[in-house]
Amino acid sequence: MKKEIKMDFIKEYKKEKIRYEEFKNDPIKLDISRGKPSKKQVDYVASVFKKAEIEFDLYSNRTGIDKQDVGNYGLLPGITELRQLFGELLDLPYENIIIGGNSSLSLMYDILSLNLMFGNMQSKTPWYNLENRKFLCPSPGYDRHFMMTEYFGFELITIPMTPQGPDMDMVESLVKSDPMIKGIWCTPLYSNPDGYVYSDETVERLAKMSTAASDFRIFWDNAYFTHHLVPNKVNKIKNIIKLCEKYNNADRVYQFSSTSKISFPGAGVSLIASSKANIEHIQNNFKYRIICYDKINMFRHAIVFRTKADVDSHMEKLAEFNRPKFNSVLEILDNELAEFKNYLHYTRPEGGYFISLYTMEGCAKRTYQLCKEAGLVITTVGDTYPYGKDAKDSNIRIAPTFPELDELNKSISLLACCIKIAILEKLTDN
Ligand code: PMP
Q: Fewer Cβ atoms within 10 A, N terminus or C terminus of the chain?
């Protein structure tokens, strides 16, 4: 019996090897390592902005509801119409929101720096003074989060992710006993890379849990809050800022987001939302480093997106660019990997920018190498874990949005072929 199965493996291996050589003879030359919108999507967004700007004549009409010239200094927390819009989108009073520059990641960096240099309201001890400071990293997760806290000298603690969010039993027991744990990274809606949605219970427990560190902070990166993929299905997460308030932990959470994948990646607007006291604390720090952020860009966004309905219909349109790509990737994986379902699994996200595939343990790096040799660059294996180390060598992040459909299909067929070869090599002892 055993011998028979092994013969099948060898037959399958030979078949995939022939296919692989064909891929290599016609190399793909494609990089799908990052979650970037396609050129067609950016072109579409540009056409929307162009139309609105021509109609409005932004440079002649530079005053909004604040009655201040957006082309001049002023308004450190950002223009009120945009704060109100995000307030409506995130179900928060606009006073709890600061609009930043072109990157939410840089706001996260600034807020971490603020805590490292000056501490926060709950403890005046700067985190930088604490040599063995630690940060919780639900994994797999976003590599740039992990890199940032590693760079700032935190010990990174891996917390396993589940389809409901981080393993909360582990989170609660760690934060309860260790005052050196100062924070946790969370991407609560359509997590990067799994596309998981934090359950109501998870959000509630994060808001409620008792922490040994009085100055503990949740870095709530709500990057994909409006990036739904399934028609007429809007997944929602609980409002953590309101829940923290309810449980007398009002200052526990900093929420971040941006329009990087609503308008222009690298040229949108970002935001931070938090308790009133935190917002004041942040402004009192920001005033030493900036007079105001780019209000012309904010105004440009406020002209295009006047109401929540404008954002919703725009995002439905953007979903039309990405939905066929996600569907196509899943269809190819379903067809190609049906025989391999005992050795791997992958997520079927309802939003966000990624699909996460868990191949047989010990096979992800080999898959990456095979793809690379045939001209396809996927996310570096390990990047989705603290210190770039996936202990199981299993997670592969698939970012389907950047290439057009024909290129994407070819590259996912190649990826599937490489996954099969790597698994078969292992099963047949090479
Ligand atoms: N957070 C997450 C979870 C991301 O996937 C990304 C990348 N798109 C970012 C933040 C970066 O956002 P920004 O462009 O606003 O810096």
A: N
